[in-house]
Design the sequence.
């Protein structure tokens, strides 16, 4: 299994508070992704990174920001949490170099509840 | 828009064979992936197809027809541990993955 960890694994917070989720990888992969997963929807891309300090928006980026200051860490921040951001958040990684290397591998997920 | 369609839920019997279909309409095509996701866990990679035809990997096989925008995942000799959701995803012209909502497979003894 790819070495990907996420922290925290569970979090309960209140509306209006900022929240930061961390993804850490030990694979030295170039690409990192943040997804959210909600019932009835496929995984939806929030933001992704293609290198240190290189990030771009995904399909559902409003209300989220990211940072990647080191290859191994990719942070997702909810600037002011809302109840609609209650979800399961997955981090994924992939690399260059062909289909297997470009396959995305997922971290264990963070369950976030915004009250 | 881009769209991936899969059945929401399927039921099968232990020891049997089941086929999970996936149809897609995307802007470009750079490969199709199948993932397995057990309840409360992360998706795990099962298979990748980029050329038409069947890819076999043990009890699991995946088929692709690019002209029809269609794929299926075939699971043989079903085991109780195969109870999970199966996610279909297509890599589009921007090399981004577009995901289906997943098919929940229930295995009965």
Sequence:
């Amino acid at each position: 299994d790819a070495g990907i960890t996420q922290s925290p694994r569970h979090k309960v917070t209140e509306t209006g508070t900022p929240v930061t989720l961390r993804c850490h990888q030990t694979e030295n992969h170039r690409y990192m992704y943040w997804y959210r997963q909600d019932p009835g929807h496929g995984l939806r891309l929030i933001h992704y990174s293609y290198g240190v300090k290189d990030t771009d928006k995904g399909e559902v980026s409003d209300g989220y920001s990211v940072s990647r200051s080191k290859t191994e860490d990719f942070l997702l921040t909810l600037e002011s949490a809302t109840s609609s951001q209650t979800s399961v958040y997955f981090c994924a990684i992939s690399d260059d170099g062909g289909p297997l290397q470009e396959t995305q591998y997922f971290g264990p997920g963070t369950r976030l509840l915004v009250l | 828009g881009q769209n991936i369609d899969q059945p929401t839920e399927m039921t099968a019997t232990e020891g049997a064979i089941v086929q999970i279909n996936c149809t897609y309409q995307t802007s470009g095509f750079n490969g199709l992936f199948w993932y397995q996701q057990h309840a409360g866990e992360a998706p795990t990679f099962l298979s990748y197809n980029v050329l038409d035809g069947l890819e076999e990997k043990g009890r699991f096989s995946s088929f692709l027809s690019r002209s029809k925008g269609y794929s299926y995942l075939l699971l043989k000799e079903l085991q109780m541990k195969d109870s999970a959701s199966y996610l279909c995803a297509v890599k589009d012209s921007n090399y981004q993955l577009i995901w289906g909502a997943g098919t929940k497979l229930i295995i009965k003894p």
Chain B touches chain A through 19 residues (CB under 8 Å). Chain B has a mean pLDDT of 96. The two ends of chain B are 40 Å apart (CA to CA). DSSP finds no helices and eleven strands in chain B.
